[in-house]
Write a structure and sequence with these properties.
The chain is of the alpha/beta class. It contains 15 helices and 10 strands. Strands 1, 2, 3, 4, 5, 6, 7, 8, 9 and 10 form a 10-stranded mixed β-sheet that branches.
Length: 360
């Protein structure tokens, strides 16, 4: 999942209707969809209000078609395999954990989106070539079930170090770092915290402390985590899960009736900052439509709409952050981060080592 995959799946499970596609592939003047339809390829967490899509279509003159293509890793890998004859014009959802793979494989062509000067400096990358445009950000963090910890008279963990303490044995569920974006983000967070030499030792201790690994976020959050709405229905028994800082506000927004406080909390000392990008695909059949779409994705209308649909933070100066985020899911004050170059140099070997260490 991308920052990707996120809490949008939770929203879907609780009844949020999302827009999978607008228009059809036969809207182009030549019947191919290339001239009047612009196609966005995304991971499964794409969600946007209908009136925002309508505004883009009216403003640009293009109809928007959306192809959802699995989680972020799957979408990027498929885009690389089909780059000579891409499925669409723009790819959305490649995050900083996967960015180097996309760039090294020549997935995108250069384009500096209109309004790019409004993107907050901390999110800008590849500024000499402009192959990708930052669209949103979020923090991968351990979430905890407030009620469970209150019932057991136990203080929730706050840091990576806390998670290996005996009192938290058999309480944490994480996603597979080789198949899940938040799982990979959590691994990178531990590497950022403990360094190249220290993270394997940390994971040995985490494994000895009973960490449970599942394939993806949806299973971890909605089936294994006792604090989520889905987890309660599934009678889940793990009160700690790797999710997002924006998961608590989602639990409030989609609850009926709405609680005064979020039922889940965030261990802020475990957070890793993710940023998601979009780019104009090499060999796009409708590059002009793709450019118009990239312009729109960093425009105020889309950036204001995005948080309560995809439960991510905007990256453009002046965009509105919902009060639900401010109250229930503020961004981490000091998240772990990592340079894309370091991720590129180490990601594959780290994942291979992690798999051997944790899954075998």
């Amino acid at each position: 999942m991308g920052i990707t995959k996120k809490v949008t799946v939770l929203a879907l499970g609780l009844g949020l209707a999302t827009l999978s596609a607008c228009g059809s592939s036969g809207d182009g003047a030549d019947g191919s969809g290339g001239s009047k339809t612009v196609t966005l390829v995304s991971h499964n967490s794409w969600a946007v209000s209908k009136d925002v899509v309508a505004a883009f279509e009216k403003q640009s003159g293009y109809r928007l078609k959306v192809l959802e293509d699995g989680d972020a890793g799957q979408a990027v890998n498929k885009a690389i395999l089909t780059k000579g004859n891409p499925q669409g014009d723009v790819l959305f959802g490649v995050d900083n954990t996967l960015l180097s793979r996309a760039l090294d494989n020549g997935l995108f062509q250069p384009y500096e989106a209109k309004g790019a000067d409004k993107i907050l400096p901390g999110y800008r990358v590849d500024e000499d070539k402009h192959r990708v445009t930052p669209v949103d950000s979020g923090d991968v963090c351990v979430n905890y079930d407030k009620a469970w910890f209150a019932e057991h008279d136990l203080t929730p963990p706050k840091t990576f170090d806390d998670l290996i303490e005996p009192e938290y044995k058999d309480l944490l569920v994480v996603e597979n770092a080789s198949t899940s974006s938040p799982g990979l983000g959590f691994l990178l967070g531990t590497a950022a915290k403990y360094g190249d030499e220290g993270w394997p030792g940390y994971w040995k201790k985490l494994k000895a402390n009973g960490v449970k690994v599942v394939d993806g976020w949806e299973q971890a959050y909605n089936e294994e985590f006792s604090g989520s709405a889905g987890g309660k229905q599934a009678k889940a028994d793990r009160p700690l899960v790797v999710s997002y800082a924006s998961s608590p506000p989602a639990e409030v927004v989609y609850a009926d009736p709405k609680p005064d406080t979020a039922p889940t909390g965030v261990a802020e000392g475990t957070c890793f900052r993710q940023v998601e990008y979009a780019g104009l695909l090499s060999n796009a059949k409708n590059p002009e439509g793709g450019k118009a779409l990239l312009d729109f994705l960093i425009g105020k209308r889309f950036q204001d709409d995005m948080p309560l649909n995809m439960f991510v933070y905007p990256v453009v100066e002046g965009a509105q952050v919902p009060q639900e985020f401010v109250k229930f899911g503020p961004q981490a004050k000091d998240p772990r981060t990592m340079d894309p170059e370091r991720i590129a140099a180490n990601r594959d070997q780290w994942v291979k080592s992690w798999t051997s260490l944790v899954l075998k």
